[in-house]
Amino acid sequence: MDYIEFLGTGGTRTPTQGTTCVRVSEHCVIDAGNLINSFGDDVFTIEHIFLTHSHLDHIIDIPFLADLFVTQQKISLKIYGLKATLDDLRQFIFNQRVWPNFEEITLLGHTDKTIELIALEPEIPYSVDGITLTPFKTNHTEGSCGYIIEKNDVGILFTADTYKCDRIWELLDARTNIHTLVIEVSFPSNFAQLAHDSKHLTPALLLEELKKCHRDDISLNVIHLKALFYTTILRELNELQLLRNNGRILVDGDRINYNIS
Ligand SMILES: [Zn+2]
Ligand SMILES: [Zn+2]
Question: What spacing in Å lies between the alpha carbon of 103 and ligand 2's midpoint?
């Protein structure tokens, strides 16, 4: 694939929009907010899921995927994340109470377990399926991260959910091969307290954050809007001129090319 595809872009589920889910190569996705609906019969092509954190809107299809894979697949579904995220999956999802412990259940007729949880280290690049993913810590939950997604030496930075986070802007300064930023904005600007408490951004907070950015060549795209406030957030983003260099509010099905030249 010469592009990444946004399969789910909402900050909440609606009848027409899934939650965070990005296909970054043929067999690899970031987050699992909208896999089942998007892949349909092709769901068994998914081999690798890199998680940004363990909030429900980012992991919701993983239990159903494991349920499908246990009788149909030959090799484990590999799920990657920082340690705290994987610990949450073990403790709160695959705990034999909410859902079976598919980390210990063997694929029917094979030797691999149904899922394999693989811990990532921040700032270490991982090569998989022809791309490189580098997780970096964000300011959202314990274990939350964004990813630099690179193919053929060009990159896209995807923050996923975050509040104010210096590291985003340091990475953009240091990595001049990154041409596109996909960042979250969840609430309108007058929800500053809720944004602080739930560790999300608003247009006003993004404007403040952008003062840390020393580059003017980055395409700035926004994701994870809470659907109830879409119109207000869109107006504020436009008033503050935040959607820079052909940036836009991403919707399900949108694509961004790895190579934009
Ligand atoms: Zn979250
Ligand atoms: Zn979220």
Answer: 24
Ligand nearest to the CA of 224: 2
Cα distance between the two ends of the chain:
16
Residues 185, 202 contacting (CB under 8 angstroms): yes
Domains along the chain with CATH numbers: 3-250+252-257 (3.60.15.10)
Question: What pLDDT is recorded for position 261?
Answer: 66
Kindly give the distance from the C-alpha atom of residue 59 to the centroid of ligand 2, in angstroms, as a whole number.
10
Write the pLDDT tens digit of every residue in 232-257: 999 999 999 999 899 999 999 999 99
* Angle between helices 230-239 and 203-210 in degrees, nearest 10: 30
pLDDT digits (tens, 9 = 90+) for 219-230: 999 999 999 999
Question: How many angstroms is it from 183 CA to the middle of ligand 2?
Answer: 12
Q: Give me the residues of the chain with pLDDT under 70, please.
A: 261
Give distance in angstroms: CA of 161 to centre of ligand 2: 6
Distance 28 CA to ligand 1 centre (A): 20
Is 215 in a helix, a strand, or coil?
A: coil
Relative to the alpha carbon of 12, which ligand is closest?
2
